[in-house]
Amino acid sequence: MAANPPVQVGFQNKNRVAILAELDKEKRRLIQSQSMNNPGASIPLSRPAVNKEFRDQAEQQHIAAQQKAALQHAHAHSSGFFITQDSSFGNLILPVLPRLDPE
């Protein structure tokens, strides 16, 4: 394993810094030219609250579909009873033990 001489390492660091500075300048120039061409581009097109509500609703529908699939699978492959219920541990379905009346 050959070590680079200190002069070469310093040159590589300076070169790397110069490249990063040039990329940063180019990025700023592109952002400025883009904002000049489209002055309304920075205005959000939708309200964040509506977007969040839509995302939450889609997530709830996805979870409901997963629960339904898990429940159907459990009923098909097990002789036990299961229910869908929110779980602190992320379980989609929970097993249920029936209560027996004392005789």
TrEMBL record:
Record bears the keyword DNA damage: yes
A GO cellular component annotation in the UniProt record: nucleoplasm
Stored Pfam families: SOSSC
Keywords on record: DNA damage, DNA repair, Nucleus
One record GO biological process: response to ionizing radiation
Keyword DNA damage: yes
Subcellular location: Nucleus
InterPro entries registered for this protein in UniProt: SOSSC (IPR031821)
Highest taxon in the source lineage: Eukaryota
Coiled-coil region: none
Record note on quaternary structure: Component of the SOSS complex.
Family statement drawn from the similarity comment of this UniProt entry: Belongs to the SOSS-C family.
Function (record text): Component of the SOSS complex, a multiprotein complex that functions downstream of the MRN complex to promote DNA repair and G2/M checkpoint. The SOSS complex associates with single-stranded DNA at DNA lesions and influences diverse endpoints in the cellular DNA damage response including cell-cycle checkpoint activation, recombinational repair and maintenance of genomic stability. Required for efficient homologous recombination-dependent repair of double-strand breaks (DSBs).
PANTHER family tied to this protein: SOSS COMPLEX SUBUNIT C (PTHR31526:SF2)
Record-given protein name: SOSS complex subunit C
